[in-house]
Design goal:
This protein has 331 residues and is an alpha/beta fold. The protein has a single domain, classed as Bacterial extracellular solute-binding protein, family 7 (D-Maltodextrin-Binding Protein, domain 2). α6 links the parallel β5 and β6. α2 packs antiparallel against α10. The structure holds succinic acid.
Length: 331
Amino acid sequence: MFRKITTLVAAAALSSLLAAGAAVASDPITIKFSHVVAENTAKGKMANKFKELVAERLAGKVEVEVFPNSQLFGDNKVLEAMLLGDVQMSAPALSKFSRYTKQLQIFDLPFLFKDMAAVEKFQSSDKGIELLTSLQKKGLVGLGYLHNGLKQLSSSTPLRVPADAKGLKFRIMSSDVLAAQFHAVKATPLKKPFSEVFTLLQTKAIDGQENTWSNIYSKKFFEVQPYITESNHGLLDYMVVTSKEFWTSVPDAEREIIKKALDEAIAFGNEVAAQKSVDDRQKIIDSKRTEIIELDDATRSQWVEAMKPVWEEFEKEIGKDMIDAAYKSNM
Ligand code: SIN
């Protein structure tokens, strides 16, 4: 009798162990992709494309959940959350990594890249790829760069020459280089999350901000900013990141398929970014709510001259060889 009961208990234990094992084996891996912009932007569309490709290729094994518009985390918290395993992927602006690496600050230097072709050339060079790995010591893996575009200055008063910015308050991303850039024109920079910018502008708590045509349009900043100076003075690009812990936990075969899907989604996102820079600029012009101030060569040179000393200020942290390499990508 005793032997019979023991056998039954052992059989039950074995079957529940097998059931638990089967459940673990069949549970899909979930990738929570958190970002702060609207879905109808390069980053929003890239994330949704990635979700779609993974669903097609790894159905039942891996699923991607996308959280746009800072629904899950703002950029100031997302990397911390990633290291804690609360989110698996994100694509913060390159300006938002300075707590983790100083080298990526290169992308914030004013007037470093003359156009997006130069940005692309630098990012795909050996030095650009070296920067993608600069977060590894902090437990983060850079999976690829994604474009948004060049930034413009929006404001409540017209900004034609650098002296016009004197004394004004500008919202910036959490970057010391961007702070130095506004100090260089005697303005006051304020580091604030993206999700707060519209209200800060609308309530006139700040006078202006810098952003791409796509973000100015999709977040309606142009509705509360009567002037936009087409300065193209800086870059807003992203790095798609994950945590080393998560990335290495994914089986090799699936990881390869996920990476390929992501590369394709990024290529698609970059096409969207290029198109939006043109289309969203035009939509803002068509709205007639904002005056676009174009800079001729002489006035643009004044902005360059005022802001360029920032390069030297950060040369030590970034590396002169890195800055020289980036600058050469303009040629
Ligand atoms: C983003 O494009 O992800 C946000 C940029 C910003 O914070 O200004």
